[in-house]
Design a protein that fits this description.
The structure holds 2 protein chains of 2 kinds.
Chain A: H1 7-23, H2 26-33, H3 40-53, H4 71-83, H5 91-104, H6 107-119, E1 124-127, E2 143-147, E3 150-157, E4 168-174, E5 185-191, E6 197-203, E7 209-222, E8 226-227, H7 233-242, H8 251-267, E9 269-270, E10 273-274, H9 279-303, H10 313-334, H11 346-352, H12 362-368, H13 379-391
Parallel strand pairs in A: 1-4
Antiparallel strand pairs in A: 2-3, 3-7, 4-5, 5-8, 6-7, 9-10
Chain B: H1 7-23, H2 26-33, H3 41-49, H4 68-80, H5 87-99, H6 103-110, E1 116-119, E2 135-137, E3 140-149, E4 156-162, E5 168-174, E6 179-184, E7 190-200, E8 202-205, H7 209-244, E9 246-247, E10 250-251, H8 256-281, H9 287-316, H10 326-337, H11 344-354
Helix pairs in contact in B: 1-4, 4-7, 4-8, 5-6, 5-7, 7-8, 7-9, 7-10, 8-9, 9-10, 9-11
Classes of the chains: A alpha+beta, B alpha+beta.
The structure holds flavin-adenine dinucleotide (FAD).
Flavin-adenine dinucleotide (FAD) sits between chains A (126-129, 134-135, 159-161, 211, 371, 374-375, 378, 380-381, 384) and B (245, 247-248, 252, 255, 257-258, 314-315, 317-318, 321).
């Protein structure tokens, strides 16, 4: 066993760090550090920056514009990006649709769609969930009925993240009501400009807008937009769940959040002394740091592939990773005491300067990040997966 | 021992509950709580008419209540409706006016003709009264009070400031004489920054430390009761949702993993109610016993409130994350109550300092 990074890996880390230093603007990094909402331009700019270096879709094969990085390099890359306060890339095209097309797409789909994801011409969003189909995704009802060379889609998707920025959506739709529910689902690509589609924003608990409802009324989609065979959608969705494990634990992002928490604890006070010197609060920080340190190792162990846990590895990383992140968010709002309370409007952050600028959104971010244990398969569903594997039933 | 509320308190509680259910439903609450003026002035006047403010003040001082149980009766109902009216600030101001024989002010506040609040925190104090730097000079005050609850709509602000004698004094400032920066809080309702720059003030006391501690403890008991009311409602909402929401062909309430979690937080709500009653009973006890009981209560409330808020959101799934769903506002209120007048850890520090743990073996 050797837990050190090799000289080549260290050199790689420096290369990434160097790139970030020269290409990530201070303005954008500050926005990320301060937990402010990123707009479409912010995200597009960052995608373009990474794309110009060939690092936008590191998980893709080289021939499609990806890299040949192994999982350790992927981990280092994630860690460095988080440390530099780079925006997280938008996963729907890069980590979801891309890998699906590479595995299941036709040559034509790969040739036309993948480059447009990289170039930013297309912004994809994910249309899986429905009002009645969340954890029980297989109960989805949005219907696609074949009509000549088209499918006609009727139904509703919801919780569509950043749909307001997107021009395309990939959907799971019901193409058959016979047999097992899972066997009547297909994976289809839809242009959001198609007549019959309406998108409505959903306001979240902290007041932000990042999710949407999408309504489909007689929406005509060419048969050529189906990925894989008809009724193969569930297989594709399951493939996706097992894919892209590298980032699921969010170790890099949590490490950066922890280091910000520590700076904040040195800055704010209790009883006239820095909060960092208060044994009660310091103990809480130390505890979460212990968990994160272990998580870092767990993540690397899993990535290196020697761990004996198999299918449920990503479930474990998802649960622990989100719980740790939420614990850090929790402490970051607590550190502010009464000054966490103001609604982080422009006035409050900019002019009133009640809490330190980099911490003014801490309570909002705490509330927003409650989503981490709900989406991407809730933590209860992840426990069910591990339990099923453990008990074999 | 008798845990049943007196007839008078039951009536106040019932009429307030009925009034808020009819006049302050969550849709109305959310409409007024997040936008200027961050409450509903007409409803405030009606609450005063109902006698709610009088219930917070003792008979000797011009009201008809004023004991710990009167405060919890009112605030539990405020919590059930997560009412955005500036009751907390006025409660603390009323206690402070009462401690200084200010019958005139008390009368106008009880009548709903004027509002007041209490400003003590500053950007660098984090609840520590000893770190206050706002100071009196002649008949003026200079300094900045931060996150003053109800400061957005108060006519007068009672300010804790260093007196010329170096003690913690209490001064009254007319809002019109100060610079007030109003804003909504993240869970709704208003607060303000109060900026004092040689601002005209009236001294109530050059040494008001004890009265201030008592007013803050009354505020803490109020917040505990508010949390109990909010937790009760959120629990019922969560239970109803689990029974109604279908996934995998059955109500998700049938999943034992979720049942146990609801049960666990229900137990904490009972504990929270009990310790709130306990603290309310000690509000008029000697200062040390009072301070310990209140710190214990608010510590437990902080922990229970966080558990209930987080679990309720989680068990609702995506719906619990939305602004439109009223449960999310209850969850926010429960979390943010912990940020007011000292959080779980602050209370723990107090409880540790006052406990009989320290001492010879
Ligand atoms: C901010 C946000 C962004 C999202 N983005 C997207 C997106 O871009 N695209 C998309 O398709 N979806 C998205 N989702 C949807 C997300 O995947 C669902 O919210 C999630 O699958 C849970 O479904 P639900 O909300 O319907 O909750 P439900 O399935 O109704 O679950 C409610 C509660 O019951 C629990 N539960 C359910 N079944 C069981 C069981 N068998 N055993 C124990 N507990 C159980 C759940 O864990 C949860 O706590 C997003 C959600 C959020 C909150």
């Amino acid at each position: 066993m050797d837990l050190n990074f090799t000289p080549e890996e260290e050199a790689f880390r420096h290369e990434v760090r160097d790139f970030l230093r020269h290409n990530l603007s201070e303005e954008l990094a500050t926005k990320v550090r301060n937990g402010r909402d990123l707009n479409k331009t912010d995200l597009e700019t960052w995608h373009a920056t990474l794309n110009s270096r060939g690092w936008l879709a590191p998980g893709w094969p080289v021939e499609h514009g990806g890299t040949d990085w192994d999982s350790v390099r992927m981990h280092i890359f994630e860690e460095e990006c988080a440390r530099a306060n780079a925006p997280r890339t938008v996963p729907f095209g890069l980590s979801m649709l891309g890998p699906v097309l590479i595995k299941f797409g036709t040559e034509e789909q790969k040739a036309t769609i993948l480059p447009r994801i990289l170039s930013g011409e297309d912004w994809w969003c994910q249309g899986y969930s429905e009002p009645g189909a969340g954890s029980d995704l297989a109960s989805l009802k949005t219907r696609a009925i074949r009509d000549g060379d088209d499918y006609i889609i009727n139904g509703q998707k919801t919780w569509t993240t950043l749909g307001q920025f997107a021009n395309k959506i990939f959907c799971l739709v019901r193409t058959s009501t016979e047999g097992k529910r899972q066997e009547g689902i297909s994976f289809i690509l839809v242009d959001l400009d198609t007549p019959g589609i309406e998108m409505r924003p959903i306001k979240l608990i902290e007041g932000g807008f990042e999710v949407n409802e999408v309504f489909f009324t007689d929406v005509r989609v060419p048969v050529a937009n189906m990925v894989g065979e008809e009724n193969m959608g569930w297989t594709i969705a399951k493939y996706l769940l097992g894919h892209e494990r590298t980032n699921i634990a969010g170790v890099g992002a949590s490490s950066e959040a922890l280091s910000q928490l520590k700076s904040l604890a040195r800055k704010v006070k209790r009883k006239g002394k820095p909060l960092a010197q208060d044994p009660i609060f310091a103990a809480k920080i130390a505890e979460v740091e212990i968990d994160l340190e272990a998580m870092r190792m767990t993540n690397l162990r899993m990535l290196s592939g020697v761990a004996d846990a198999q299918g449920s590895v990503s479930s474990m990383l998802k649960i622990k990773g989100t719980v740790i992140r939420q614990a850090i968010n929790d402490l970051a709002r607590r550190a502010l005491g009464a000054t966490a309370a103001p609604f982080p409007s422009e006035d409050v952050i900019g002019n009133y300067a009640i809490a330190p600028a980099e911490a003014a959104s801490n309570a909002a971010n705490y509330f927003n990040n409650r989503k981490l244990s709900i989406f991407g398969g809730s933590n209860e569903i992840q426990r069910n997966i591990i339990a099923k594997e453990t008990f074999g039933a | 021992m008798d845990f049943t509320p007196t007839e008078d308190r039951r009536m106040i509680g019932d009429s307030l509950r009925r009034y808020l259910a009819e006049q302050y439903p969550i849709e109305h609450r959310n409409k007024v709580a997040y936008d200027d003026p961050f409450h509903d002035p007409a409803k405030w006047a009606e609450l005063a008419e109902l006698g709610i403010l009088g219930a917070l003040v003792s008979e000797d001082d011009g009201g008809f209540g004023g004991a710990g149980f009167d405060i919890t009766t009112v605030f539990e109902e405020m919590g059930r409706a997560i009412c955005a009216e500036p009751m907390l600030g006025n409660l603390m101001a009323l206690r402070l006016y009462a401690a200084h024989g200010e019958a005139g002010r008390i009368e106008t506040i009880i009548a709903g003709a004027e509002k007041a609040t209490f400003g003590f925190d500053e950007s660098d104090t984090y609840g520590d009264l000893d770190s206050i730097t706002t100071s009196a000079s002649g008949d003026t005050l200079t300094g900045r009070k931060t996150v003053v609850y109800g400061g957005h709509c108060a006519d007068h602000i009672l300010v804790a400031a260093k007196s010329t004698a170096g003690k913690l004094g209490l001064y009254e400032v007319a809002a019109a004489d100060a610079e007030i920066l109003p804003y909504a809080m993240i869970d709704g309702a208003g607060a303000a920054e109060v900026i004092l720059d040689k601002t005209k003030s009236r001294c109530l006391s050059e040494d008001a430390r004890d009265a201030i501690e008592l007013a803050l403890d009354a505020g803490r008991v109020a917040l505990c009761a508010e949390a109990v009311g909010a937790m009760d409602v959120l629990k019922v909402m969560t239970k109803d949702y689990l029974m109604q929401r279908q996934q995998f062909g059955r109500p998700i309430a049938l999943f034992q993993a979720l049942q146990h979690r609801l049960v666990d937080f229900s137990i904490e709500i009972e504990q929270a109610r009990s310790i709130t009653i306990y603290a309310a009973s000690k509000l008029d006890a000697d200062p040390k016993a009072r301070a310990l009981a209140v710190a214990q209560a608010k510590n437990l409330i902080g922990r229970a409130g966080k558990l209930v808020a987080e679990e309720a959101v989680q068990m609702h799934g995506g719906i619990g994350m939305t602004w439109e769903y009223s449960g999310s506002h209850y969850a926010k209120r429960l979390i943010m109550i912990d940020h007011q007048l000292g959080d779980t850890e602050d209370q723990l520090r107090t409880a540790m300092a006052l406990s009989d743990l320290a001492g010879a073996a």
